[in-house]
Amino acid sequence: METEPENKHEYDKPISDQIFKSGRKLGSYKPGDSTFYSLIENYANSGDFKGLDMVLYRMRREKRVFLEKSFILMFKAYGKAHLVEEAIGLFSRMVDEFQCRRSVKSFNSVLNVIIQEGLYYRALEFYKHVVNAKHMNISPNTLSFNLVIKTMCKLGLVDDAIEVFIEMPIRKCVPDVYTYCTLMDGLCKENRIEEAVLLLDEMQVEGCFPTPVTFNVLINGLCKKGDMARVAKLVDNMFLKGCEPNEVTYNTLIHGFCLKGNLDKAVSLLARMVSNKNVPNVITYGTIINGLVKQGRAADGVLLLVSLEERQYPVNEYIYSTLVSGLFKEGKSEDGKKLWKEMVEKGCKPNTVVYSGLIDGLCRVGKPDEAEEIFNEMVNRGCAPNAFTFSSLMRGFFEMGKSDKAIQIWKEMENDNFICNEVCYSVLIHGLCKDGKFREASMVWPQMLSRGCKPDVVAYSSMIHGLCNAGSIEEALKFFNEMLCQEPKSQPDVVTYNILFNALCKQSTISRAIDLLNSMIDRGCDPDLVTCNIFLTALKEKLDTPQDGREFLDELSVRLFKRQRTLGAIKIVEVMLQKFLSPKTSTWQRVVQNLCKPKKIQAAVDQCWRNLYC
């Protein structure tokens, strides 16, 4: 903000005496408008706002001409310094105080400053104020619309963004590649993939040709959805349009196949990536290592790590953290410790992520006391614990039956004003309920909600379990119905359903349990071994005419087969065989048809012949 200096005499000297003392050595030098622009540029780039105030004051005194490009430099400087309101204030004073005409360029510059600071609602407010102000006479251009669409998508207001997109031709602004990419990305993040794909066709009809970035947005959206078949078609389309996949494309594809558990395809893509002269980076290899760990192949991940180090690839802390945690999850605690030691010996300084991975691993193998020692070392070395660190440590003590120690950690977090997230609350509620301290858990629940933390499936299931154990089944069902209205991470899973099945069957209300089972299947959740055992026990012990459950399980498997949920159906058949309950002949026929696909059998036979003669 330009103000008159406290000591005006400080600026009374000619600027040439103060700043351009060396100018005389170079010959005649007269400070003109370009000189002042250079001063503004230098002060803005260095973030010297006091210097800017000096120059602006001097220019006003000498009635110099103010150029809009000077203000754009100052807006950017304010943006770098996170001084949003100062930028907005300077924009509003351009005409009255500096007699400088504002245009859409300075408008876009300030709008971008607000957006970069993450003040999205403030950005929309500023946009509407300027565009609707007749005295400003500023009409938005394509860049203005792009910034507004980006802001709306950031806020999840995709429908509003679409309205702005439709408004563009009316304002005589043609959407560009950036416009389409931004809107596609917003749609994908709202899981509206079909609409995003339609935009790809529309932009080509309108003569706007997609770039690799455009395809990457859609590929990323489809990969997250798990629709790899459509991803393959999109990549083919990409080649047809003359767009070569880049590192981002390959990394996204590899991540998508790893999420689906198709590591062979991910590795083959890696080979193709190299053959197409795209250099894999630490993200590429980190994704594959993460995929290996998720499949219980941490040892293979370690071999890949060794290979990377031999090729002198930089390996980051996330890869080490993933492998250390993965080895512990697989019960290979000694290997996990060995990798940790090797990492330190190689000069890789452990940070919060790696420390947290080790702490989580030790807790998973029942060594929370050892994990606490690592935690103390972590704090002493200046690494700040995060929510994952604390929740891992709490979970470890709860699992070992040391609930008092877990609660002590929670209290220490609160005393240190640590901001707990949903996971921390979930671990605490689950641990308290499991330890029979439902009353304490029910006191934590409203505290969690009041702090804006949304309970996940574990927290809900734990509360439902606690209520069922207390005999309050109707109250538990209210929690369950509340879950159904929540976002995906809070939707009931098979564990939640099993808790309710068990409670209902113990009360001899098997019909209500079966109704709930039907609802569970309709919602796409498959029964497991625990589900089957609950109903088998209930049918045997709670009915006037006891049943062995053969017909019940057989019918359940058939229903799943009919819905193309083969894996779930086969699990039911496996349970039947374990219980010596023979499935019907027609059910066996379905099993054989699904397991023995003609193409798979033929492929296996062909492979055998190749092995014999090659």
TrEMBL record:
<feature type="repeat" description="PPR">
    <location>
        <begin position="141"/>
        <end position="175"/>
    </location>
</feature>
<feature type="repeat" description="PPR">
    <location>
        <begin position="176"/>
        <end position="210"/>
    </location>
</feature>
<dbReference type="Pfam" id="PF01535">
    <property type="entry name" value="PPR"/>
</dbReference>
<protein>
    <recommendedName>
        <fullName>Pentatricopeptide repeat-containing protein</fullName>
    </recommendedName>
</protein>
<comment type="similarity">
    <text>Belongs to the PPR family. P subfamily.</text>
</comment>
<feature type="repeat" description="PPR">
    <location>
        <begin position="316"/>
        <end position="350"/>
    </location>
</feature>
<keyword id="KW-0677">Repeat</keyword>
<feature type="repeat" description="PPR">
    <location>
        <begin position="351"/>
        <end position="385"/>
    </location>
</feature>
<dbReference type="InterPro" id="IPR011990">
    <property type="entry name" value="TPR-like_helical_dom_sf"/>
</dbReference>
<dbReference type="Pfam" id="PF13041">
    <property type="entry name" value="PPR_2"/>
</dbReference>
<feature type="repeat" description="PPR">
    <location>
        <begin position="421"/>
        <end position="455"/>
    </location>
</feature>
<feature type="repeat" description="PPR">
    <location>
        <begin position="211"/>
        <end position="245"/>
    </location>
</feature>
<feature type="repeat" description="PPR">
    <location>
        <begin position="456"/>
        <end position="490"/>
    </location>
</feature>
<feature type="repeat" description="PPR">
    <location>
        <begin position="386"/>
        <end position="420"/>
    </location>
</feature>
<dbReference type="InterPro" id="IPR002885">
    <property type="entry name" value="PPR_rpt"/>
</dbReference>
<feature type="repeat" description="PPR">
    <location>
        <begin position="493"/>
        <end position="527"/>
    </location>
</feature>
<feature type="repeat" description="PPR">
    <location>
        <begin position="246"/>
        <end position="280"/>
    </location>
</feature>
